[in-house]
Amino acid sequence: MASPEPLSDEELDELDELAQAATPGPWFVRGLDDEYAMNLVAVSTTPDTGLGERWPNFDHREIVAATLVQQPRYVDAADERWDENAQFIATAREAVPRLVAELRSLRAQLKTGGSESGSTLAIQRNWSS
User: Cα torsion for 50, 54, 55, 56, to the nearest 10°?
Assistant: First the structure.
């Protein structure tokens, strides 16, 4: 498999803009349930309580995404990775801005010929850890 192309500065800017425009984090995976959205796997601005709340006992305005709405099948994934997809989305909310910032910092260090400690080797160590 070929290595992906490095992100351009413009692509980093786009990712940063997307993250800034999205609902603030952190985001959490929640399992909710009711007769309309049976087994709802959602990404929410509030943590899961473990109670599988049924509507109207959860605030729909806290839900930013869903990876499964089982009844009727409004939202589904053919590979049945609802929980994994929800966890990825929730994690990406905090990880993307951090990754963009780290890439920019490392690129700036490379341009100046070193890192805060004055060594390009330190950058390579940070990158591989």
Answer: -80
